[in-house]
Amino acid sequence: MKMDSYAIPVADDAWAVGTESTTTLFDWDYADSREKMQNLYQKGKDRQWDATKRIDWSRPIDHDNPLGVPDAFIPISSSRVWGKLTEKEKANVRRHMASWQFSQFLHGEQGALICTAKIVQTVPDLDAKYYAGTQVMDEARHVETYSRYIREKLELAYPINPNLATLLEQIVSDSRWDFTYLGMQILIEGLALAAFGNIRDVATEPTAREVNAYVMQDEARHVAFGRLALRDYYPQLTDAERREREEFTVDACYLMRDRFLGEEVWRNLDYDAAECMRHVRESELMKQFRGGLFMRIVPTLKDIGIWGPKIRAAFEDMGVMGFSTLDPDEGNRQDEAVAVALERELHGAATVGADSAA
Q: What is the pTM of this model?
C-alpha cells in the first residue's frame, strides 16, 4: 500500500518510538520494495522445517568419539599433553571438545535469536522486517535443535565462552540497527557457517552432520540478508561512521579467532592450559583451521564496503586475505545443496520435503 493510497493523508512513511536504550521504527509504506529482499523473504517462508520431524533423534552415539572425527580434529592431538594421555582420557577429551563446540553454537544461536528480534524492532524498512521475522523462527529452531543435541546426545554442556559473551554484549547493547546486522548477520553468523561446515564435512556421526547441515541451510540466507541490507546502507556512511564500524569489525574478528583456543576445556580437565593454548595458537594445522573460519566473513565484508586499510591489515595479519577473491554467494548455494543431498542420503528421496528441495 503506497503512501498516496491512504484515505487520509499520512504525515510521514515512518514512526519512531524511542526509549532510553533503543528506537523502535514503524513503516507505514506497505508497498513491495526491493525485489531481492522480497525473494529472500519468500525463500525464508518456503524453507521452514521442524527439527522434531526432519532429524532422526533415535540414533545412539559413541561417547568415546561423539562426532566420529579423526584425532587430527582435536586441537591438541599433536601436542605433548595429548601424547601423555591414556585412551580413556583421550575419549574424555573428544566428548568435552564436542560439548564445548556445540555449547558455543547453542549460546551463539540464542544471541542470534535476540538480535534478530531486535532487527525486527529497529530496522527502518518493512521488507527487512518481513525477512527478519522468518529468521526469528529460524533462530528459535536452532536453539531448540542444539539444545536437544546437547541434552540427549552429549549429556554435557559448557558455559558461554568469554570472548563470545563480550561480542554479544557489544552487539546487543548498541542501539544502531546496522551494528546488529554487522555484528550478528555478517560476523558471528559468517564465522559460525565455517565452524558448522567443519563438523558437517569431517564428522561421521549422522545426527551431528544433520544438525549442522540443516542449520547451515538457514544461516546461508541470514548472511545474504545482512549483505543485502548493509550493501544498500553503507555507501551512505560518513568517513567517521565507516571508521567506527571498521574498528569494531577488526576487534570482533580478533575476539572470534581467539575464542577457538578451547581454554575452558583445558582448565576444566586440569591440563596445562597455557601449554595447550600455546599449541593451538602455534600449530600449523590449527592456524589453517582458524584461518578457514574467516572464509565467509572476508568476501562478505569486501562486498558490503567495509574494506578500509585497517580491515585489510588485520586480515593480512591473520593470513586470510586470500579469501577476498571468493564469491560470497557460491558458499551459500553450496550449503543449500549439501543439506538437501545429506537429507536424501540419510532418509531417502521420498522424505525430502518440498521446502528443503526447493
A: 0.89
